[in-house]
Structure formats: C-alpha cells, structure tokens
Amino acid sequence: MRKKLRVFPICIVILLTLFLKPVPATACSCAKEPSAEEGFSRSQAVFSGEVTRIKDNNGLFGGYGKTVIFKVKETWKGINETEVAIATGSGGGDCGIEFVVGKEYLVYASVSDMYGDKSLTSVICDPTKELGIAAEDIDILGQGQVLPHNVKPIDNGKKTALISGGVVFIAGLLGIFLWYWMRRNKK
User: Fold this and answer.
1) Of the N and C termini of the chain, which has fewer Cβ atoms inside 10 Å?
2) Per-residue model confidence as pLDDT tens digits over 156-187
3) 60 is in which domain, residue-wise?
4) How far is CA 80 from the centre of its chain?
5) What's the predicted TM-score (pTM) here?
C-alpha cells in the first residue's frame, strides 16, 4: 500500500507538467528598420488602427507577451475585419512594441508563433509606428481600403482560461479522490 501512496505524488507532478509550458527565451536585435516597401512585401497584414485593448498573455499555462486589439481604420493588405488582434512582446529585449491604448498606429504584421500560438505578430524589427509619424510610409503605400464598421468582437481569452482552470480543478479532484480511495482500501 505504501508503494501506491508513493505513486500518487508522481502522478500529480506528471499531470501538472502536461499543463505547464516553459516560456522560451528570446532576445531581439535589428540591424535597421526596413523601408515601407520592404515592410509591405514581407508582411501578411498592413493596416492603420487605434489600440482599444491590451491583454497580458503571461499565464500559468504558457504564453507570454501581449495581445493588442486594434479598431482598424484603413487596410492595405491582409485585413478584412474592423477589429484585429496582434501579438507582440512585453518589452525589455523580447522584440515587443510598447503600444498605448487610444493611440493610432500604422501596423506591419506577419504570422508567427514567436509569442505562443500562430497569430499576426508585430515586433520592433517591423516598420510599425505611430500614425502621426507615418506620413512617409502612407505616401509610399498609397490610399488604403476603408472597411465598413461591422465589428466582430474578439475573444479575450477568458474561455481558454476557464477551460484550462477547469481541467486543473478536475485533475485536483481526481487526485483527492484517488488519495481518499487508496487510504480507505489500505484498512
């Protein structure tokens, strides 16, 4: 029976390691900011928009950096929704851009898994900048497309957190049940 009790903590550790993901280390260094033409050609999405929300992705179950939600004003490439989520780092050497809620930006984004799941990502090595200082880029890009304002709300991650929390809760209950069952059968 003692052997069974020794197995219980090992099972709990194994279950927890299945749900916890290590955060990979990243460092960022850019030789020079690309031109608007270079940025446009290597990006999957180019748009201007206002930051409406910023969500930290640092969590128990992996992910890091930030998700920045934009209300799209004008698009040049790859965007057909009036609200879009962009992943970026938290700053401090991880390539993240310090976006500010309420400010407008010209965003160059590419699909990447740099900050977790594959998503549109913009980093300091992209020519993303505040809209107020992007006149030269906009002259080069030309007139963008203004989208009709039919905003589809973007999932803010609460559903994923609830599912993950529920799985851990159920695993904990299962662990307690197994512990209780093993103690009862010991007698």
Assistant:
1) C
2) 555 566 676 777 778 777 888 787 777 777 76
3) 24-154
4) 20
5) 0.68
Residue, of 100 and 18, whose pLDDT is higher: 100
CA end-to-end span of the chain? 10
Does residue 71 belong to any structural domain of this protein? yes
In a domain, 128, yes or no: yes
pLDDT tens readout for residues 102-114: 999 999 999 987 7
Residue 174 gets which letter from DSSP? H
> Residue 51: CB partners within 8 Å, gap ≥ 6?
68, 69, 70, 99, 100, 101, 102, 103, 104, 105
∠ CA 29-34-36, nearest 5°, is 150
Residue 177 domain-assigned? no
Measured CA to CA, the distance from residue 124 to residue 57 in angstroms comes to 18
CB count within 10 Å of CB 108 equals: 26
CA distances 46 to 1, 58, 108, 115, Å, are 63, 26, 5, 19
The answer to whether position 43 is within a domain reads yes
Euclidean distance between CA atoms 93 and 90, whole angstroms: 9
**Cβ proximity of 126 and 34 under 8 Å:** yes
Q: Provide the CATH number for the domain around residue 76.
A: 2.40.50.120
Residues 6+ away with beta carbon under 8 Å from 167: 19
